[in-house]
Structure formats: structure tokens, C-alpha cells
Design a protein that fits this description.
heterodimer, A: mainly alpha, B: mainly alpha, globular
């Protein structure tokens, strides 16, 4: 039995799809508005750009599970099996740390804006921290994909290692 | 150890050890900023987000989505069919079709790996069935897909324009003739190799369809660049506006005209475009922080100063820059190179009074070739994945095509009129 459309995609995939669709629609309405009626909704630009940030963080997470982030492998492939294992763990650990630094720095920005600056966004006039807060959820969802990517890559790595040994 | 030396060292070591490029850039920048206490942590987040939150960069997800949707509409197959009827009969007919489709798809897609993936599946098996070697077929696709970032729309021009405050629309227009020139050089090489190896053309009996019918069937593919470039050239759209119009056009073609797009396919296309965008923008975001760190530590100024004093001749300087970009292209992806090198080159361009559009087009043409130069060529990896063979096998076959593109690059670098003829 085919699953209904909404069950074929995970939460982060749906978020990516809907945010990107919203970006397209907002931008298209603005193009139409500018040429047909001579005005555009300037405040929507901040919505679109923040959605863009969420799409990038969520999509980067999905990319880690699909193992598509480019890297230089020539030297890596010359290491013995155990060396490659260590380097893979290092690469994923560094990615985890970098996401953690981003989450921490974002949290500090939210905290300072909430308690000290009380700054508001230029377009809609809402507290600027409210645009940063969803990034933390996006990072959490991306980390879940990073973990799955790590498991897939390790499985492949050990499978390839076993073939090498047999040869 | 000084901050600038540490920044470069961490970057080079992590890159060599196989850490993803985006993480390498981010880890080097973050460790130097925090270790030397050069900026508060909130500035790290601020810089990361500011690198993404730029209106001109919105054109990237939109052009990528338009490309994915047109792929869903099976326009690649229709274009292949048209070019097969046009040039399929001559020596190496299918290889010429592959390169011509690659050049044309460049006017629909703005990313090299995306073009390789879209055309590879369609073309390679057809070429292998007709007697071509799989690595040669994959090399022809990967090399012509290079031109996706020279022929507009182009992700590289969008990022270059954003980095240097140069008009993306003018860069797009400037890329047309150089893209066609490099493509022409590749067509000649593919023809000569095919002749030498005895790859025969498609027999007339196999070409039963009429040219007019094929032209009609691929008309929606041909019309896409007309809308994008025509709108920009006529001054109706900015690049970002042209991108969003391209998305709506692609959606109408895929969902309403050809009816190849289901709801599931539509959501999958949105997810695919998000992931492809994120792969590029994740590098952009961390590379933005890296190049900001480079300017804080002073390493950018030092190298710029050294470059400016290297020669008095702008032509020697531009050829040296092309050689540097080609060398970096062997180990890095185009976007990282752009963020590493462009901040250093801006003072050089100003010192030698170079036309920014010509310089941008020459720079991106050199970057494009880097996408297929081994050992790290993003297009090579994509093509190797499609034929399930090691990258080395394709790398050998791609070298004559790289040489052809380099000849095109030298012409673009030495005669600014090639890039500027349509801009002016």
C-alpha cells in the first residue's frame, strides 16, 4: 500500500519543502506586485531571508545523511584502515563541535537580545531573537541527520574494510 | 604562533585529512577567533547568518529548484533528442550531442554537479550502447557540465557578484560568449577524439522522427533561458526576480503542460533543491566567517600586497591568477576558492584598473575548469558515481577536454572583448 504524501517525508524534509515553497511564493508575489501595482511588501524580505537560514541548516543536516558534503579524499584514501577509521571519527566529531558552537553562539545572541538590547526586526517590528530561536530546533534536527550519516558512513567503511581483508 | 599562520595551518591540515570543506573552514575560523579572543561568540553567529541573509543569494535556491523541476519534466531527454537529430549523424555524433546538451543545460541549471547528474543518467547509457567507452562518455558529460557556472544562470556568478558588489545581471550577460567559446573548443576536441577512435554517428534509419516535431517537443526547454536571459537583458528582471519567475515557469511546464509532476514528486523536488542549496550555502556561511577571520588577522592584506608587487603587466597578473585558480581547483570546490581568493584579489583588480565584469567572468571560467580537474573535481565525482567506476578512469579521459577549455580560458583572459561584447 502506498503511504499518503504527508507520511512519505520526515519532519525536517517537510520543513525544508514548506519553507522553500513559502520563499518562492513570497518572492513571486513581490515580483507581481512590483510590476502590476508598482509596490512590493518590503517587510517580507526579512521573513524570506530568515526562512533561507532555516532551510540551509536543515538541508545541511540532510546532506550529512546523504554524504554529499564535498571533501578532499586523495590523502585520506592512502591511510591504513585504522587511520581512516580515526579520521572519520575526527571529521564527525568536529562537525558536531561546530554545530554545538553555532548553537551556543546563537543562544548567547538570543539571551543578550532578550535581556539587554531588546532589539526588534526592521520590517515586522517583532523581537529579533524570535527569528534566531527556530535555528536551535533546526540544529537539533540536523544533528539527528548527522548521527544517521555517521552510522551509514561507518557501516560502509567497515564493509569496505572487510572486502579489503578478504582480498 | 601568529593567528594568521594558525588559521592557514588548521585549514590545510583538516582539508588534507578529509574533513568536509565547510567544516574545515568553520573549524579553522572558530578556533582562531576563540583561542586569540578576537571576537565575542555572538559575532560568530552574526557572521554565519549574515553570510546567508543576502537578497541576491536567494537566486541560488530558486535557480536550483527551477533546474530540478525541469529535470522532472524530462526536458533533458527532449533536448537530447533534438540535438541527436541535428548532429547525431556525424563522427562521434552522440558525444557531440552530450556536449551540446551539457552546454544548453547550463542555460537552465546554474550548478555543475546538478547538470552532470541530470544529463549523465540520460546520456551515458545511450553512448555506451552505441559503442563509446563509459569513462569517455562520463568525461564528455562532466566537462561540458562545467560550463553551467559560466553560462547564465550561474551559482558562481551570484556568489561572486554578492562578494564583490558587482552586478549579477551584467556578469550573467558577460558569461554567455565565453561559455559558448569554451563549449566550442570542447566540441572540436570531442569530434577529433571520436574520429580517431572510430566512434560512428547514429545511422539515418534510426532517426525516424522529424526535426520539426523534436523542435516542438523541446520548445519549453528552449524557452526557459529565453525568459531568464531575455528578462535580464531587457532590464525587466533582476537576477533574483528572474530566478523566481523561472521557478513558476518550470512548475507550470512540469505540472500542467507535461504532467510529469505528482504531489510527492513536487515535495521531493523541494527537498532535493533544499539539500543542493544547503550543500552550497553551508560552505558559503562558514567560508564567510573564514574570510572575515582572515581580514581580522591581516593575512588577506599581506597576500594582496605581495600579489600587487609581483608584476607590472595586468596580463601577466591575470594569467597568474588563472593558474592559481586552476591549481586550487585540483583540491577545492569552486565556492571555497572564491571565498579564499576573492578578498585577496579585490585590491589587485583595483590596482590594475581591471574591468570587474571581465575579471569576474575570467575568474569564474577558471573556477569552472576546476570542477573537472582531478583529484578533486565535483563533476568528476558525480559522473564516477553514475558509471560506478573510479574517478581516475574518467580523469584520464577528461584531460584533453580540460586542455580545450584552458585554451578558451586563455582567450577570455587576454581579450576582454570576448566577455564584454554583449555587456557593452
Amino acid at each position: 500500500m502506498d503511504k499518503p504524501v504527508w507520511r512519505r517525508f520526515a519532519l525536517d524534509e517537510w520543513l525544508c519543502a514548506l519553507l522553500l515553497l513559502a520563499m518562492v511564493l513570497i518572492a513571486f508575489v513581490n515580483v507581481l506586485g512590483r510590476y502590476l501595482f508598482g509596490y512590493s511588501l518590503a517587510f517580507t524580505e526579512e521573513l524570506t531571508l530568515n526562512f533561507f537560514v532555516y532551510v540551509v541548516v536543515l538541508g545541511a543536516g540532510l546532506g550529512f545523511e546523504q554524504l554529499i558534503h564535498p571533501r578532499f579524499e586523495s590523502l585520506f584514501n592512502r591511510f591504513p584502515f585504522s587511520g581512516r577509521t580515526l579520521l572519520l571519527v575526527l571529521a564527525y566529531a568536529l562537525t558536531l563541535v561546530l554545530f554545538a558552537v553555532l548553537a551556543w553562539a546563537t543562544w548567547r545572541r538570543i539571551y543578550i537580545n532578550m535581556t539587554l538590547f531588546h532589539s526588534t526586526s526592521a520590517g515586522l517590528g517583532i523581537p529579533s531573537w524570535s527569528y534566531d530561536a527556530p535555528v536551535l530546533l533546526c540544529i537539533l534536527l540536523a544533528l539527528r541527520r548527522l548521527w544517521r550519516g555517521f552510522r551509514i558512513e561507518m557501516r560502509r567503511h567497515y564493509a569496505a574494510g572487510a572486502t579489503d581483508d578478504n582480498a | 604562533m601568529s593567528p594568521d599562520l594558525l588559521l592557514v595551518l588548521i585549514f590545510v591540515i583538516l582539508l588534507a585529512l578529509g574533513v568536509p570543506v565547510a567544516i574545515t573552514l568553520g573549524a579553522a575560523a572558530v578556533s582562531v577567533l576563540l583561542y586569540f579572543d578576537l571576537a565575542p561568540e555572538t559575532l560568530i553567529a552574526q557572521n554565519f547568518y549574515a553570510s546567508i541573509k543576502s537578497f541576491p543569494l536567494l537566486a541560488i535556491p530558486f535557480f536550483i529548484l527551477a533546474g530540478v523541476l525541469l529535470k522532472e519534466a524530462r526536458l533533458a531527454e527532449r533536448l537530447v533528442n533534438l540535438f541527436r537529430l541535428l548532429v547525431g549523424g556525424v563522427h562521434g555524433g552522440l558525444a557531440l550531442v552530450a556536449v551540446m546538451t551539457g552546454i544548453f543545460w547550463g542555460a537552465i541549471s546554474g550548478s555543475g554537479p546538478a547538470t552532470t547528474a541530470a544529463l549523465g543518467v540520460v546520456m551515458i547509457s545511450a553512448m555506451v550502447r552505441a559503442g563509446y567507452s563509459a569513462p569517455f562518455a562520463a568525461a564528455a558529460i562532466a566537462a561540458s557540465a562545467d560550463l553551467s557556472i559560466v553560462i547564465p544562470p550561474s551559482v558562481a556568478f551570484i556568489i561572486y557578484g554578492n562578494l564583490t558588489a558587482t552586478s549579477v545581471s551584467k556578469l550573467f550577460i558577460g558569461g554567455i560568449v565565453p561559455g559558448l567559446l569554451m563549449g566550442g573548443c570542447m566540441l572540436v576536441v570531442v569530434y577529433l577524439i571520436s574520429r580517431k577512435r572510430g566512434y560512428r554517428g547514429v545511422r539515418k534509419a534510426e532517426q525516424q522522427e522529424s526535426l520539426l516535431r523534436a523542435l516542438w517537443q523541446s520548445s519549453f526547454a528552449i524557452f526557459a533561458p529565453v525568459i531568464i536571459l531575455g528578462g535580464i537583458y531587457a532590464g525587466i528582471f533582476t537576477a533574483t526576480e528572474a530566478a523566481v519567475v523561472a521557478v513558476i515557469y518550470s512548475l507550470v511546464v512540469a505540472a500542467l503542460i507535461y504532467r510529469t509532476l505528482s504531489w510527492t514528486g513536487f515535495v521531493a523536488a523541494l527537498v532535493e533543491a533544499s539539500v543542493l542549496t544547503a550543500m552550497i550555502m553551508f560552505i558559503v556561511a562558514w567560508a564567510g566567517l573564514f574570510s572575515w577571520t582572515g581580514s581580522v588577522t591581516g593575512v588577506v592584506d599581506e597576500i594582496s600586497h605581495w600579489l600587487v608587487n609581483l608584476s607590472d603587466s595586468r596580463y601577466i597578473i591575470i594569467l597568474l591568477i588563472c593558474a592559481l585558480v586552476l591549481a586550487l581547483g585540483m583540491v577545492l570546490d569552486p565556492i571555497s576558492i572564491m571565498y579564499l581568493v576573492v578578498p585577496i584579489l579585490i585590491p589587485v583588480v583595483q590596482q590594475f584598473d581591471m574591468n570587474p565584469i571581465w575579471f569576474g567572468v575570467t575568474f569564474v571560467s577558471a573556477l569552472a575548469i576546476g570542477q573537472v580537474t582531478p583529484p578533486v573535481g565535483v563533476n568528476l565525482f558525480t559522473a564516477a558515481g553514475i558509471i560506478n567506476e573510479p574517478v581516475d578512469a574518467i580523469a584520464r579521459e577528461v584531460l584533453p577536454l580540460v586542455a580545450a577549455a584552458v585554451i578558451g580560458l586563455i582567450i577570455i583572459a587576454l581579450w576582454p572583448a570576448v566577455a564584454l561584447v554583449l555587456v557593452n
